[in-house]
Structure prediction request, 335 residues.
Amino acid sequence: MKLTRRRALALIAAPALAAPALAAPALMTTRAHAQMSTQEWPQRPVRFIIPFGPGAGADIGARLIQEKLSARWGKPVVIDNRPGGDSFIAIQAVLSANDDHTFLWGPSGNFVVHPYLYQKLPYNPDDILPIASFSSTVLSVAVPAALNIVDLADFVKRARAESGKWNSAAVAGITDLAFDYFAKEAGLSFAKVPYRDIVQAVNDLAEDRLQVYSSSYAIQRPQQQAARIKVLVQMGGKRAPSLPDIPTATEAGFPTMEMEGLVGLFGSPAVPPDLREKIGADVVAVADDKEIDAKLNATAQTPTRGGARQFGEVMARQRAHIAAIAKALDLKPTR
Prediction:
């Protein structure tokens, strides 16, 4: 049969016209598989890797919902403590596993500052995906009781008078970054003393070898209760229910110090969006418990719940906030 021009064009067009019809079932199969995978998850024990040792605030929070999640999912939830290495050990364990049963549980402050501290990272920060927010660690700024400082305004006044003579602890993280930004905006200058042991830093604060220290309130609390240091402000946007008498930095007139100590669950890119939403909703559901809230407040943590989408929005704001501070401080990675 003679191949006419019209017939040749028809033969060329036929596969293209058939492609959408063939693609539609394939797309439906992919969606159905994803839905089926979400419904069947988990298929084995779920692992929460924590970048701290047992007894740390994040570890306590994870264990508060461990049994409830195990019951809800029908599989054990295993707490795997991987402290050290500025959280790199825990992060790399999660990303190396690259599956939908291994997660990172901890504070975002441990890794959102990494791009501004390290010249070369062993992981891609975009690969840490938010799944559920659980709590906020109470962050605070304290001074030695011996200085008899009244409040944050008094501290600023006296620090200006002693410009460059007072010592401030340098502990890499979001609290130190937020405090340095506050100091720059307030026109303050401090001699920075580096610490690896954060407990030693608060002990030195109590002895007036340091004149100011920003950290989690849980670290400061023993010396505060012993009346050896004074906590001036909380760094979060709202007063923690457990500390109603300590004002926020914003209430004290210095909003540049504001920083949230977000704690939650994170996953790798191996966890599909639908599954992140499901897991996030499950975490929020089991955490809705007054007894859990009371235990969090007792350990200087504030309940802060949100699913994958909401936590993603909060994390985006925190990353933008950290980036703005780093730019204002002209921060250059040195490690």
Residues 137 and 301 are 5 Å apart (CA to CA). The two ends are 75 Å apart (CA to CA).
